Amino acid sequence: MRRFIALLRKFHGVFKIMEEGTSSLRFRLTPKAEKLYLDELRVRNEMEGLLVVKLRKLLMMSMDKPILLENFAQLRTDLGLPLEFHDTICQRYLQYFRVVQTERDPTLELTH
User: Fold this and answer.
1) Non-local CB neighbours of 36 within 8 Å, separated by 6+ positions
2) Element (H, E) at 2
3) What angle do CA 107, 57, 63 make, to 5 degrees?
4) pLDDT of the residue at 81
5) What is the pLDDT of residues 35-62, one digit of tens each?
6) Whole-structure pTM value
7) DSSP character for 112?
8) Cβ proximity of 5 and 25 under 8 Å
9) What is the mean pLDDT of each run of 10 residues along the chain (112 residues)?
10) Per-residue buried b or exposed e for 51-64, using 16+ beta carbons within 10 Å of the residue's own CB
């Protein structure tokens, strides 16, 4: 626990530590770090539509064969996809995407 607190104190520009009593601590993001976090969330939300279009185009190029989800892991940063995009974006846009379990591994297919 002491290492964790020392780590938080090391990044005083990101975390604010508040003492509550003699043996209790609370921490939170500094206002600047919180603004940065909220800005990142806003940009991700704004980019989601573009990501859906990119995924659909990629899947359209391989209409006759679904793409293994593991292949997206290699392209994830190039496409700007979140870590678990198949649990987030693909689930929010079921009208376009479907994850299918095959004998080999799960794949991503277009539904429309």
Assistant:
1) none
2) helix 2-10
3) 55
4) 86
5) 999 999 999 889 999 999 989 998 999 8
6) 0.68
7) -
8) yes
9) 86 88 85 95 90 91 84 84 87 92 90 81
10) bbebbeebbeeeee
- What's residue 95's pLDDT? 95
What is the rounded CA–CA span in Å between residue 112 and residue 60? Answer: 10
> HEC states along 36-92?
HHHHHHHHHHHHHHHHHHHHHHHHHCCCCCCEEHHHHHHHHHHHCCCCCCCCCHHHH
C-alpha span between 78 and 21 (Å, rounded): 48
N-terminal to C-terminal alpha carbon distance within the chain: 51
Residue type present at position 18 = M
